[in-house]
Design a protein that fits this description.
The complex is a heterodimer.
Chain A lengths: L4 E3 L2 E4 L5 E6 L6 E8 L3 E9 L2 E5 L6 E5 L5 E5 L8 E8 L8 E2 L3 E5 L1
Parallel strand pairs in A: 2-11
Antiparallel strand pairs in A: 1-3, 3-8, 4-5, 4-9, 5-6, 7-8, 9-10, 9-11
Chain B lengths: L3 E4 L2 E5 L4 E7 L6 E7 L6 E7 L4 E4 L2 E6 L4 E6 L8 E7 L8 E2 L3 E6 L1
Parallel strand pairs in B: 2-11
Antiparallel strand pairs in B: 1-3, 3-8, 4-5, 4-9, 6-7, 7-8, 9-10, 9-11
The chains are: A mainly beta, B mainly beta.
Chain lengths: ~110, ~110
């Protein structure tokens, strides 16, 4: 069974631009969540989707948004990029409705110049 | 929201010794506490978890303890091996769903 796939793996943007990251969960997993990983801050929760509905949202500004499609694939978008948005963005899927094991993708490393 | 603190941030032990990583959480409603291991350049993976109705759970050389009154939980690794070297993250969850609040991580180095 294929794992969680994230694209692109690396990208470089400049301040003010926007970016869209994609995540394909493990087949059959309906829960998809996104985390921002930075040195010293660990993993910070962005949002979680289940069956196309956003169930939970972390404490990030409105520039961060996401969505989930009927095939469970998910995208997250960051608009008006800031230098502080440079991070590894991890997507994770789970087969369980709640408190499930997270299966992480390899991440999309975003650098904002 | 929930706030999870993790200590120490770095830990070095001799091979064969034990390692202990401690986490505290702020919201008494948290009821699920997983631990993830992230090896260098790899994705985090679940190694053990505990629910609030259990005080201790073991899986071979690793164990997790939970003290709900004090709102802290700990990861114990016995007989450490070089392959245990990684960053370990604790997490807590209080909502329905798969929203987790992670600690800032502990970088464990096992010295052969």
């Amino acid at each position: 069974k294929a794992g969680v796939t994230q694209t692109p793996r690396y990208l470089i943007k400049t301040r003010g631009q926007q970016v869209t990251l994609s995540c394909s969960p493990i087949s059959g997993h309906r829960s998809v969540s996104w985390y921002q990983q930075t040195p010293g801050q660990g993993l910070q929760f962005l949002f979680e989707y289940f069956s196309e509905t956003q169930r939970n949202k972390g404490n990030f500004p409105g520039r961060f948004s996401g969505r989930q499609f009927s095939n469970s694939r998910s995208e997250m978008n960051v608009s008006t990029l800031e230098l502080g948005d440079s991070a590894l963005y991890l997507c994770a899927s789970s087969t369980q409705y709640s408190h499930g094991e997270l299966f992480f993708g390899e991440g999309s490393r975003l650098t904002v110049l | 929201g929930e706030n999870v603190e993790q200590h120490p941030s770095t830990l070095s032990v001799q091979e064969g010794d034990s390692a202990v990583i401690k986490c505290t959480y702020s919201d008494s409603a948290s009821n699920y506490f997983p631990w993830y291991k992230q090896e260098l350049g790899k994705r985090p993976q679940l190694i053990i978890d505990i629910r609030s109705n259990v005080g201790e759970k073991k899986d071979q050389r690793i164990a997790v303890t939970l003290n709900k009154t004090a709102k802290h939980f700990s990861l114990h690794i016995t007989e450490t091996q070089p392959e245990d070297s990684a960053v370990y993250f604790c997490a807590a969850s209080l909502n329905t769903g798969n929203q987790f609040y992670f600690g800032t991580g502990t970088s464990l180095t096992v010295i052969p």
